[in-house]
Structures are given as structure tokens and as C-alpha cells.
Amino acid sequence: MHKKIISRRQFLAAAGVLGGMSLLRPIWGLATASTSESTAAGGATTWVPSICNFCSSFCDIKVQTRESDGVRRIVKIDGNTESPLNRGRICARGQAGLRQTYDPDRLKQPLIRVAGSKRGEWNFRAATWDEAYSYIVSRLQKINPWEASLIGGWTACVSYMHFSLPFCQTMQIPNIVASPLQHCVTAGHLGTDLVTGNFNVHDEILADFENARYILFSLNNASVAAISTARAVRFGQAKKNGAKVVCLDPRMGELASKADEWIPVKPGTDHAFFLAMLHTLLREKLYDADFVSKHTNAPFLAYKDKNGAVHLAADMSGGKPSSYYVLDSISGGVRAVPGYINTNEKAAGGGRIQPALNAPAGLTWKGHAVKTVFDMFIEESEPFTPEWAAAITDVPAETIRRIAIEFGQARPAMVDPGWMGARYHHLIGQRRLQAIIQTLVGGIDKPGGWMMSGEYHHRSEKAWHNMQHGIDSSHEPPVERPGMGFAHALLDIFANPKAWEHGKPALSFAWAMEQQKQGKPSAFLPAMADTGLLEAVKGELTFNGEPYRMKALIMNAANPMRHYFPAKRWEEILTNDNLDLVVAIDVLPSDTTLYADVILPNHTYLERNEPLLYPLGPETGIGYTTRLRAIEPLYDTRDTTDILCEIARRMGRLEPYLDGIAEYAGLDPQLLRNEVAAAQRAKKPLNEAFLKTAYVAIGKFSGKLTGKEMTGAQVEATIRDKGLLLLKNADEVVKEMNLPRKLPVPTMSGRLELFSPILESFAQQAGQQPLFNPVLGYVPRVLTNQGDKNDLSADEFYFTYGKVPVVSHASTNSNNALLAAVTEPKKGQFMGLWMNAAKAKTLGLSNGQEVEVTNLRYGPKVKATLFTTEMIRPDTVFLPSAYGSKNKKLSIAGGKGTALNELMPYSIEPIAASFMSQEFTVSVKPVNS
Amino acid sequence: MTFVHQEVWHWQIATYLFLGGLGGATFAISAVLHLFEGCDRKMLSVAVMSSIAFLVIGTVFLLADMLQPLKAIYALTNPRSWIFWGVVFINAYFVAAIAYVIPLLEEWPMLQPIIQKIPAPILGLLERFNKLVALGGSAAGFLVAIYTGLLISAAPAINFWNTPALPLLFVISGFSTGAAWLLLLSMLSSNPGAQAISAKLEQLDAILIVTELIILGAYFNFAMFLPTSARASAEFLFHSPVFIVGFFVAGLLVPLAIESWGIFFGGHSEKDKPKLTMLLASALVLVGGYLLRIYVLKAGMFQYPW
Amino acid sequence: MARYGMVMDMRTCVGCQACMAACSTENQTPFWSEKFRTHVEDKETGAFPDVRRVQLPRLCMHCENTPCLSACPTGATHMNKDGIVLVNYDRCIGCYACCIACPYDARYAYDSEDVQKERELYGKLVTHDVPHVDKCTFCVQRLSEKLEPACVATCPTHTRIFGDLDDRKSEVHKLAASGKAQALNQGLGTSPKVFYIPS
Ligand SMILES: Nc1nc2c(c(=O)[nH]1)N[C@H]1C(S)=C(S)[C@@H](COP(=O)(O)OP(=O)(O)OC[C@H]3O[C@@H](n4cnc5c(=O)[nH]c(N)nc54)[C@H](O)[C@@H]3O)O[C@H]1N2
Ligand SMILES: Nc1nc2c(c(=O)[nH]1)N[C@H]1C(S)=C(S)[C@@H](COP(=O)(O)OP(=O)(O)OC[C@H]3O[C@@H](n4cnc5c(=O)[nH]c(N)nc54)[C@H](O)[C@@H]3O)O[C@H]1N2
Ligand code: SF4
Ligand code: SF4
Ligand code: SF4
Ligand code: SF4
Ligand code: SF4
Ligand SMILES: [Mo]
User: Fold this and answer.
1) Does C95 contact chain B (CB < 8 Å)?
2) Does B26 or A31 have the greater pLDDT score?
3) Domain span at residue C110?
4) Cα–Cα distances in Å, from B284 out to A571, B263, B296?
5) What pTM was estimated for this model as a whole?
6) Does residue C72 belong to any structural domain of this protein?
7) How would residue A14 be classed by pLDDT, with cut points 50, 70 and 90?
8) Closest residue to atom 7 of ligand 6, CA basis
9) A-interface mutation test, from B6, B51, B65, most A Cβ less than 10 A away
10) Any stretches that span the bilayer, and where are they (chain B) (predicted)?
11) Complex confidence, ipTM
């Protein structure tokens, strides 16, 4: 029940002026026309297209503004009905977005920390932009370029990649800490990417729920139902179509509540569940044999070396496989297939073949005893029976078997790809397994399966075209490469000392290389990770015998003090006196801005144009959109692009920077220079110059893709009218550019890879471990220094967390009054620490009570408000990523919520250095006990 | 199903309901006494003036609880609404009560100059039809008293209220408080004519309390019968000490005991009666009546279908 | 003339609160005092592991047999030609009789403090200029612009389906006529025009 339905009026005041006879006072004349039927007040209404900025789902929106007395106000945001992605719908955060713009607590002008004060104190003085830039540049000029790092949240990552990457290259700054990678993208997606070849900075697969008949979810909630709108619209349709939904989650989140079957799996054991599922699918022969044999590396022959390591039978040339070998079931002989192509239907050098999935015993290749990859999967999955998994997962063996069979028999069936990782050592392995199962049932780039994004299709096609025509594309910027190609290209820059004039790679890689040299634990792909950052700040990191220091941090749309793991480490970094410069670009006084030397206020998303056009998120069709300003900025704020350009200009590198941007973003460099010069003369924001140039570029691109070239003005007009420019719809894309039915995927072999050459290479370097097993390997959760833990004491729990529909990571500090109000009726579910009600009773704990949660492995404690419920396993607690902040400058969020990252350890796994944020147990006690 | 306490009407409305019942009943009983028993005019005038005051105060409380009291006249628009009828009844009541009381005011020498300002023909008319007005006024008083119950019984999802027993209960309780108020007045009055009716009022009140007890029994029996919000409401009341002790024990049983004792053992001469206990009994009935309204409102629980 | 109604497909509601946020922005309702025209109940029943969590979105049912309208002495509450139950702000005296009469908790007071706060937030663009009792209007102002109600238009899972119950081709008509969607608390005889498909 909502409180305060009716608030009492000032009783006496009213009573004073009235008498009983006032009943008869004639007031008929008072009536005006205001009724609930009358339309809203005010003048002309306008709709401006834009993109929501509250989570990485990238929904297309339309912003309604209305004018009165010469002031234009934003009054409403709706989903853009033209959008194939979110289909006109948006979530609560999207709806409430305008409250961010009108938030009275916003950052309204540049701030500089008062000399002599400490970081963390909030002791700032107002400054002009000129002062702020001078401050920043004077510090940057004193340090070596590698002693600076950008730190970007996902907004920065998605929207400004084409600016931050060339900024780094122009300024010779080899460091970017990009939060979504360790927390989310590499931490989970890398697993699916190892199979599909996809890789994108923020979510690549759009699961086609609405055409699926059976959907299996594991470890996801927000990624669909709590809420990513593009997925939620499809999920809603799936429910209406009668798809069976099964959801593995230790608690009943929003998604699980809509499942036909909720499986409260023991936290951190899903990996075992999927292994058993695979075991059953293979034995019951419930897979799409035709697809698997044609488009995956399952029929490839492979052998074990004397150390037991598995390798593919392949010919190498130039460090890359030039052909693989399969057993042809037509001829019965071993035949070579091309090294990089989408299909196994043709032998290298021609001739139709039919690669066998199973090979007879005793088959040899070049003296090695070989088996098909598929047979190896059968062999290695042998121990992973449903009974075996039942003991680990707490899910009955019959249930696992039944689900596997139901799944295998239903077509199209889908395992949702999952989204956020960063919880357990096995997460990358688990997501990879999910992709393998999805591949086995043929559900890739097919209705009812995993749909790849338009952008990915287009880049894959381009890469394939270049390759076939011998066009060298190595000079192209990384952003032009598809999927894993992009990841590799980024590594070629950031992990590569030779890519930099000063010979220093990103410090995360410098750190990894040094750790390896010393035989200490490190990570293979600490891409844009924070590994080594603390050491570099403290002056402890060396690279090739020289000190590698960190002295300046420029943070954009990032709030590490509240949501990077753990808070303590970031406090240590940001308060260190070795840092000469900490810049925070934000819209609100987040917890992190407390620690800045200079705060640069950004326009909010509704007040700004974006400098480029962007692909439509994970949408399968190929199209472009951007943000257009709905109102003029309310305060003395700036665009990120303008900020970066101005810093570059004052460092004397604007020209090369502009060229770099033009190259990354595919803009005409001459046109860009002209537009920038014109904008400078007119004293207008540079970002408009970029956008103008981008319209022209997309017009040209349209010509290439569809044969219909457009002028920049036509592109702009379409965007203004419809909010987006759709060049090729999803059906056409899937038909013409199917991955992998028409085009190779950007894996090593071009096929979907059940066997993972990347893991193979890790095993090669780090030795055989289940974690790097390129076939299958079971990795238990690591809850204690000894490994797994199953006997919990009375007040000990497994720890889980997740997102709720009304808050975004991108605003963990969300100071949104409307969102706070819609949270209120569900404060328990959305903000409380979930604990099983019966279990709570045995501990003498009750709903709404303040409790202290102690990380039993690493020590930190936090306070939380208990939410007792039957919707969670008795051995597990769950903490929502609710809104909240420490900074009291935020009048709504300040002092609220439980900071999840204060409970987290700094614990990373060895592949992507992603965070192991659930690998510990906690105790829960009443506060003051 | 969810049972949720209504959070719309609070003590202000309870005051209105209470004063409406009290005022309406006071006038009705006075008029009946006048018509059938004959009664001291001075006492009657005090009674009727006080009942008018109760209704004025009650109306002020009602208006003060509204968002737009200045537009209250609009309430005369929709005859399907009980408030519409409330306004009609109350205004009829005011008209009748004023018309009735004016001739009585002549008993008060200090009011003479004011009364004399009223044109003689009108005064004459008022005098002439005094008994008729008393008759009409008692009907209006009755309607006002019963209306307070009808008003709140028109809430389909508040099962505890949505029963014909509630207007009945309110009307009986209203008359009981009216009788108690008149008893109080009669006992405080130095006028022997007023005192003469004390015994009558005492008996009337005792009968009303017994009736109220019977209705209450039936009412709660009905409420407890089905697992609806009415049962939740009844249980809420059973668990409210102020309701049980304040209303049921102190507001019904104790006065009933005192009055019964007075009726059966108290002797027949007025002097024998322990005046103080009787005053206490009346006061308790009044407080009890007020508590009943407050608690019935508090106990109003919606039964929502989710 | 239409007979507007809504169907809630409870199989898909995830309790995301988008409808509440949308309605509040569109209709400038007083979120600052946590008052809304629409709510989403979130209920659990049963014991682990046999638990159910049901999300039930609700708003004014636009009853055909309308207790709030009967209770309203001023005629402020009225039904328009399309069957939408509305409040005339200027006629409303704020007596709350309708709030008491409504069996679906669909109404709240837009009181004088709320009116003042609205003015602070929206400047000249106020839409509630006098205190009154407020409720869902099926977004009449959007209907006249051929837009769906704000809560319907945004609902990410298509839980809310809106249309003319008299239009035989409409989804709402079909769902209501098929009996798949049922009104709440039918025993009260209010004949709601909002129907629910059970989850
Ligand atoms: N506690 C907790 N931590 C988490 C997660 C979680 O669920 N809970 N999830 C993890 C995951 S999956 C991810 S992807 C990451 C995401 O984490 P990030 O991508 O780093 O989130 P941010 O984008 O940094 O959002 C934080 C800051 O951006 C600011 N901001 C908002 N709009 C703008 C703008 O227009 N311009 C600028 N300059 N700043 C703006 C906000 O005020 C806020 O201070 O978080 C991870 N960390
Ligand atoms: N509201 C909201 N939506 C968002 C975002 C946002 O910030 N806010 N951000 C977007 C982004 S960047 C991301 S990365 C995605 C993230 O979306 P998801 O990947 O869905 O992540 P969470 O919402 O954290 O959901 C995690 C769920 O997993 C459950 N869980 C925890 N441990 C285990 C386990 O061991 N096994 C199983 N089976 N389940 C477990 C939790 O109970 C929780 O319900 O959401 C996107 N959508
Ligand atoms: S899902 Fe919600 S928060 Fe995310 S982009 Fe879409 S509307 Fe914005
Ligand atoms: S917007 Fe739709 S899914 Fe979300 S709570 Fe409202 S009705 Fe349910
Ligand atoms: S739901 Fe309530 S407010 Fe709406 S029409 Fe029915 S009675 Fe009136
Ligand atoms: S509060 Fe307004 S709408 Fe409701 S009954 Fe009273 S006058 Fe009618
Ligand atoms: S129909 Fe309009 S007024 Fe009614 S709840 Fe939905 S958004 Fe609010
Ligand atoms: Mo994420």
C-alpha cells in the first residue's frame, strides 16, 4: 500500500475562515475550463529523436518538449516507435530520464579543488572553463604521456570510443580503464565470443526470444526482465506465444517470476548444470548434426600431444592454420578443408564433402592418432552426468535430464546468452558452454536463436570481401574490424610496446608481463583492466626495469568509488599523493567526483547532440541513429568531444587528433577540418562539426550498402524525422549475410568454434588447467582459499547480487526523484538484502531489520536492510544494486543504499582479469550484536 | 486479497458523523418530547440551540477536511450521492430547527430585543406552526442521524461498513447520545420542569443502549461470519483496548448499569438520585458515541482483489 | 463513441514500474509525494521452493457501474462519451466520498501542497492548477492525438493492451470476449473495463 493517499489539510486554518453557512455561498462563477479532459497547458509541442543514456541497451527515444513564455521544457520521453530495437517502448529509467536534466543537484559549472584541501572532502571552488583547462594541461605537460590514464564508464566506451582511442594514440597515452570490460563484457561475453567470434564493447547478441519455443536462462535477470527493453519486448512476445521458459537463479528475480519453471540452483554451480546438459544432449543425439558438421569446427580432427594437450590437425602458414582436416563420410577418407571459411562443405582445392562428426577408432593423421573434436566432447563429457551435477547444483538429476531432453526436442530452442559476468572463475567457461549448446542446436543467426548485430554482419562481410580480394586492411583502425578481430586489433595496440613511441604498453599489460616474468599470477587479456593501476600509482610497478608510474587520471562517466570493485582500492588510488591530477567528467556530484581535483560538468544526454551516428545497438538490421539536443543546455556545461578536443588543442595536438578521429569514425578528414574551423570561428561547439561530417559519411555509406547514396542533409532530415536511418532490415541482413551460413565468423577458423584455439594457446603458456581446457573442463567456484565450500555455519550464506529495474549501473548514484518514488512501494525487493524468511526466523532476524553483512573470506562489512522472502534459497542472500551514494550533495541518493563494492574483494581471474565478485561467503548479524 | 485500512477519512469526519448524529437526535428527541410529553420551553430552547451548534461545528469539520470547501455548494448536484442528501437533510434540519427555536427563544428576556426585530407576521406563523415544525424537524433530525451511517455504508469494498446494520447502529447510537445529552441538560437545569423529564430520558437511554447492544451483537456476528475484510475490521476492533474499554465498557455497559440501577433501585424522588453518577453516565455515553465513530472509521478496511 | 478498456496480460508483467514512471511524467502526477495513478502490486505466495511471485498492474477500472460516480455529490466525477471516468478538477470539492467508494484504490488527492510543487517543477506548464481528487484518465489527452495511453505505450513486455471494447477487431475486445481475460472483484457488480489474463 502506498502511504499518504490523502494528506491532511491545515485543519484549523480552514476551519477559521468557514462557517456552516458557507455552503450557501454562491460561487458558480468560479469555474474555469480545467478538467482532466483538457490537454496540457503550454505552447507548441515538438518531438526530438534521441538515444536513452541509462543503460547499455541503447534504446531509441523521442523527447517531447513544450514551450511556454519562451522557455522550452522537456515534458515527456517515449520510445521511438520506428525503432526495430525497442519498438517504441522504454523502461522506468528511460521514462524518468528528464528528471536527471532537471535535477537541482547537477554539476553546473567547472569546479577546482581548493588548494590545501584533501581529495574526498568536497572542498571545491567554482571556476571558468579556461581555468579548468589550464589547470589540467599544466599538470599533463609535466608528466610523461604513459603516466596518464583515461577511465571510462560504458557511456564513454560506447559513445566516445571513436574519440578516446585516437585521443590515446595522438597523445601517446596507452592507458584506458574501461569499466564494462572487467565487470561485464570480457568477464562474461568473452565466453560466448570464443565460440561465435563476436565481440563488442557493449553487448552483441540479440536473442530472438519471440520465435523460440523453449528458453533457458541462467544467471541473468536485468539483461532481460529488469530491464533491457529490446530484450524485454521480445521476451514478452515469447510468453504470449507460449514459449516454455526455464530460469536458473538462486532467487526469484523479475525474470524468474515469469518462468514456467524456476530452478533455484545453488549459486555458482550453473557450470555443472550446463556440463550435464551437454552430456545428455550428446548422448541423446539431440543436436542439429547437419549444421554442426557444416559450420562448426566439431568435425575437425584433433589429437593429444604427449602432455595430454589437445591440438587441431592443421597445416600452418604464417602462424595461422591454412587448412584443417576432417573425415569425409562420402569418401571415407581424411580430407583437408580451407583454413578460413564459413563452411566445411567443400574440401580445400574443391570437391563436395560431408564431414563426419564421429570418427572410427584408430584414425590417424600425419602419424597422430586423431579423433573428431565432436568425439572429444563426447569423451570428455562422460563424467558430467546429471547425477554428478545434481550433487553439485542441488538440482535433481531427473530435472536436469528432463530439461536437457525438452530443450533438445523443442525447436527452436534457446539458451539465453547471458550478459554480465564477473562473478566466478568459471563464468567465461560457463558462457562458452551456453554458446556451444546453442551452436549444437543450430540456433545461431536464425529465428528463435541468437541474432548477431547489423554492425557485426556488415563488418564481417567487409572483412571477408577484403580478404577474398586480397585487400590489405591492416592499416584500418580497430573499430573497422568485426568481433574478435576488433579485440585482436585493440590488443595489437594496447598490449604491444611497439605500438607506442615510448615503448610502453598499457600498464595492465605491463603489469601482466612483469607478473609472468616473476612467475606470479597474472591475466592473459587484462584488456582495459585496472590491473597494476594501484601499483603504478604507488610507484611499485616496473616495466623492463624502468619505473612505470601513474600520475594523472581522467575519468569520464565513471563512478568507480561506488561500483568498481572494491571501493577501498579506488579510495587508495584516488587519495594517493603521487597522483598529480584527477579529472572527473560527470553530470552529477557522484561519490567519485568527491576525489577529483577538477570536475568538468557534462551536458546531460537530453541537452546534447552526439558527435557521430551510431549503429542501432544489438539490432540485427543495419541502421544508424544519434542523439539530438532537445533543449539548450541549462548550465555552463560542455560536451565530452569538446573537452577532449580542447585538451588536445592546448597540448598542441588538435590537428593530428582530428585526423585520428576522422580515421576511426570513417569521416572525410578535409571536410572535418573545414567544419571544425568553421565551428571555431563561429565559437560553436565542435561536436556539431563532427556530426555534420558524420551525416555526410553515412550518406556515402548508404550508397555503398544499398546503392542509394544520400546527401548529409538527407541523412540529417531522416534522423530528425524518424529518429533513425534504417539501411537494411533484419530479415535482409540475416538472409544475405548470415553468419556463418553465408559468411565466416571472425574466429580463427571462420567457423563456430566448439574447440577453442584461444584457450588452447592459454593452456600452452600456463599449463593444462580445467580453466583453459579448449574442449571441456569443470571449474568449481572458489569460495575459500581452499576452493569450494558446502558446509555453511548457521549464519553463513552464499552471496549473490544483481540489478533491479529502476536503477542502472550507469547511475548507481541515481538521484532521480521519480525513480526513488517508484522504488518506494518495492523497497524490500529493490533495496533490501534478500534472505529466506524461514531461515531468517531461525536466526531471530525479521523483515526490515538493519543487519551487518560480513565478508567471511576477505573481511569487509556493510550494513543492509533485511528483506525476508520465500523467493530465495535458504543458504543464499541477495543484495540488489540499488540506488544510493555517499556524497551528501545528492539530496535524494545521498546516504542511501548499500554500497556493494564495499563488500567486494580485489579478486580477479586469470583470463580477462574479471572480478570474482561472488566468490566468498558472508555472515549476517543484527546490527549492534 | 488484501485488506487495507482506509486512510481517507479520519477523526475530523468522525467528529462530523458524531455531531451529526448527536445534533440530529437531540433535536428529534426534543421535538418528540415537546409534542408528546410537554416540556420546559427553556430547556427545549437550550437543547435545540445546542443541537444547531453541534451541526454547525460538525459541518465545519467536514468542510475543513475537504480540498475545496469554498465550492461546497456544488455538492447539490448529484442526487445519487449520499452527500447530496446529507446537504439536503442538514439544510432542512437547519431551516426546521431555526424555525422551531425562534418562538422558544422568547423565554429568554435578554434575547427579546432581537426576536422583536423579526416581523410579526412571520413570528406569528412560526408560533402557529411550531408543533408542525417540531414534527418535520424531528424527521429531519432523524434523517441527519441516519444519514451519517448511510454515507459510510456506501463503500462497496469496505465490507464492515457496507451493511444496512451500520446506519441502524449509527442512528441508535445517535439517539442514545442525544438522550444522554438531554439528560445532562435536564440534570444541570435548575428548572423543575426540565428535571421532570430526567427519568424519561434515563429510561429512553437505557432502552437505546440495550438496542445498541443487540445491534452490535448482530453486527459483529455478521462481520465475523465470512473471511472478508469485515472480519479483519472486527478483529481490529477486538484488539483495540480503547474501543473495548472506552466504548464498549465505559461507553455502553457502565452507563447502562448506572441507568438501570437508577431506574430500578434509585427511588422515585429526584433528590434520591445520585446526580453525579447520572452526569457521569451521560458523559460516558457521549464519549462512547464519539469513540464509536472514530473506531468504526479506523476499522474501515478495503478488501482489494490483489 | 467508443468503449475504451484495457487488458493486463499478467503472464508478462515483470513489475518494472515503467508504467508508473510514464504515467507520472505524462500526467504530472505528484511523484514527490509518492502518489500515482497506476500501481504495480508485487506479491509472493507459497513457501520455498514452491513460491509464486505475481505482479499485478492496476489503475482505475473505468467501471461501467460506477460507485465513485454515484458517491460524488458534485458531478465532478463523470463518464465521457467513450466510457472514460473523469474528474472535473474545478467541480471537485475534495470530499473524498469517491475515494471511499472506489473498490480499486484508484484515486488520490492532488492537494494544495502538490499543486504548489507542480508549479515549482513545471513552471507555466502546470496541468493541475487547483487541488482535487485525481485518477487515471486513460490519458484522454493522448487519445485525442491518436497516441496510446502513456503506460500502455511504454510497457516493455506488452502487458498492457488498450483499445475499444466495442470494436470487434480490437485485441481487447477479443481477449475480453474470449473469457481469457477477467475483471477483478466481479462480485461487486462494478463492471470494470479493465481485464486480467491470469499468470
Ligand atoms: N554496484 C554495482 N557495480 C557494478 C555493477 C552492478 O550491477 N552493481 N555492474 C557492473 C556492470 S555490468 C557494468 S557494465 C559497469 C558499468 O559501470 P560504468 O559503465 O562505469 O557506469 P558509468 O557509466 O560509470 O556510470 C557512472 C557515472 O556516469 C555518470 N553519467 C551519467 N550520464 C552521464 C553523461 O551524460 N555524461 C557523463 N560524463 N557522465 C554521466 C553518472 O552520473 C555516474 O557517476 O558497472 C559494473 N559495476
Ligand atoms: N535495470 C538495469 N538493467 C540493465 C542494466 C542496469 O544497470 N540496470 N545494465 C545492463 C548491463 S550493462 C548489463 S551487464 C546487464 C546485466 O544483466 P544480468 O546479466 O541479467 O545481471 P543481473 O541483473 O545482475 O542479474 C543477475 C541475476 O543472476 C542471479 N544470480 C546470481 N548468482 C547466480 C548464480 O550463481 N547462478 C545463477 N543461475 N544465477 C545467479 C541473481 O540473483 C540475479 O537475478 O543488464 C543490462 N540491463
Ligand atoms: S533499457 Fe531502459 S535504461 Fe536501458 S536504454 Fe532502454 S530505456 Fe534506457
Ligand atoms: S510497464 Fe508493463 S511490465 Fe512494467 S510493471 Fe508496468 S505493466 Fe508491468
Ligand atoms: S475503479 Fe474506482 S475510480 Fe475507477 S471507475 Fe471504478 S470506482 Fe471509479
Ligand atoms: S472528491 Fe471530488 S470527485 Fe470525489 S466525490 Fe468529492 S467532489 Fe466528487
Ligand atoms: S492510462 Fe494514462 S492516466 Fe491511466 S494509468 Fe495509464 S498512463 Fe496513467
Ligand atoms: Mo554491464
Assistant:
1) yes
2) B26
3) 4-24+36-197
4) 68, 17, 18
5) 0.94
6) yes
7) very low
8) C92
9) B65
10) 13-36, 43-63, 83-105, 132-158, 164-185, 206-226, 238-264, 276-296
11) 0.94
